[in-house]
Specification:
alpha/beta; Rossmann fold; two-stranded antiparallel sheet; 6 helices; 33% helix; P5C_Rdtase_cat_N; oxidoreductase; oxidoreductase activity
Length: 191
């Protein structure tokens, strides 16, 4: 079992904590204000908006060395909802990897809404969590957390696929914000 630290106590942080707990993992939730509390987990989930990651890196980069870092962010321009805020040839995950070269960064949970993570069901099927990254062991660790909770985990490929995952997350968010889909639904992969 894993020891999971989650930075972010909002809907997504709570939902991911529920997933990890269902699978029998040890979970600790941290708010952004808990910057002085050390991270002791082997997996650290960054359940924060993309702009907040710079502060986390500045405050905790030494504590993140050697850990599996899970980036759930979708770097959406929330003022206009018309674009992602990272360069077209990059991703939030790639930017995070540059900032944390001694950590294993994976993209996961960004194509899910909190409701489908907490319930474990999307429609009539188990919720699908897509995972991308360059470290196979780190992806396996995150996949195990997901599948131990009864959800479906699919390896979406290398870290370079994070850009496409962020585009899927962006599309899903904009559809929900425009009330074309429910915040309790989402995409699922049938494999």
């Amino acid at each position: 079992m894993a020891h999971v630290n989650i930075i972010g106590t909002g809907n997504m942080g709570q939902a991911i904590a529920s997933v990890a707990t269902k699978g029998g993992n040890t979970v600790e939730l941290f708010s952004r204000a808990d910057a002085q509390t050390p991270l002791t987990g082997d997996v650290v989930v960054l359940a924060l908006p993309y702009p907040a990651l710079a502060d986390v890196i500045a405050e905790r980069s030494e504590q993140l060395v050697g850990k599996t870092i899970v980036d759930i962010t979708n770097p959406v321009n929330f003022e206009t909802f018309d674009s992602l805020t990272v360069p077209a040839d990059s991703s939030a995950t790639a930017e995070l990897t540059k900032a944390l070269p001694n950590s294993s960064v994976v993209k996961a949970f960004n194509t899910n809404f909190a409701g489908t993570l907490a319930s474990g069901i999307n429609g009539e099927r188990p919720t699908t969590v897509l995972i991308a990254g360059d470290d196979a062991d780190a992806k396996d660790r995150v996949s195990q957390i997901v599948t131990d909770a009864g959800l479906s985990a699919i390896d979406a490929g290398a870290e370079s696929r994070a850009r496409e995952l962020e585009s899927i997350g962006f599309l899903q968010i904009t559809l929900a914000a425009a009330e074309k889909i429910q915040w309790t639904g989402g995409f699922n992969v049938v494999a």
